[in-house]
Write a structure and sequence with these properties.
By secondary structure, the chain is mostly helical. It contains ten helices and no strands. Helix 1 runs antiparallel to helix 10.
Length: about 325
Amino acid sequence: MATAAMVSERVGVSRRAARFAWGVVGYNVLVVLWGALVRATGSGAGCGNNWPLCNGVAIPVSPTLHTVIEFTHRQMVTGDVIAIVAMLVWTFRATLKGAAARVFAVISTVLLVNEAFLGALLVKLGYVTGNQSVGRMVLLSVHLSNTLILVAALTMTARMLGTGQGWRGLRAKGMDKVAAVVGLVATLVVGVSGSLAALGDTLFPASSLRAAVAADLDVHSPWLLRLRGLHPLSAVVAAGFVVWLVVRARREGLGRGMNLVLGLLGLQFALGVLDVLLLAPAWMQMVHLLGADLYWVALVGLAAGVVWPMESRLAPLPRQKA
């Protein structure tokens, strides 16, 4: 039978793994922000159309500022690969067979591979800097969606390492599943449409708020501008999901997570309005994106707590023969 010391050691290992996983989540938020800096500064072609090399070499010599920004982003992604693989190994060492954290760690690793592939594809196809093609919009939307799902999977890995829940115990009622999926997809659309709107602001800067609204309504405007209205519309739908989630969270006694989500949601609306009024300068876009990433992490965590309450924990250790 497992001794108290063995159980304590297992719990300690799991907690350290959870802290590391939360660190990986934070690092990925930084990678996303730096990726936005690449887009905002037009540095996507800073390494040419070479990948994984930068302008044909491993380490650029006498690089321009755009090359430094793009090369730094690529090195951050390399660090991300190391961090997520380390998280995967640590998760398997810190948990028992059947742990939900293992499943989400594997999902995170698969999404990371897809993330690298999509990023390389954007570079190789020339969907960077001033490219305004529909192909870029489609591939960028897929890339951004994968990024947000990756962050969500990492968040779930960290959360499940902390709760010790088993994969088989993650069951939810039909309506809870539907509400959670619809709400999170709507929030995903908010994030993707927001990034596309930011790209439109970068490629087609407006001289005034009035000119920006006129461009959005003009049937002859580029698709990037005409689709900007999707961002606030999807935000309204997502806000309805948050109302449902908050009501459920209050019943489950998840007041701390509920207050965090509501606070970040209010901050996001304020930043969104300020972003529009200031005509979306690059620094404001970065602040708005940081708030969006933090809100997404908090929302995924709260949704998991509501839909999958901690009713099933794996045993700390299996029984052993005396």
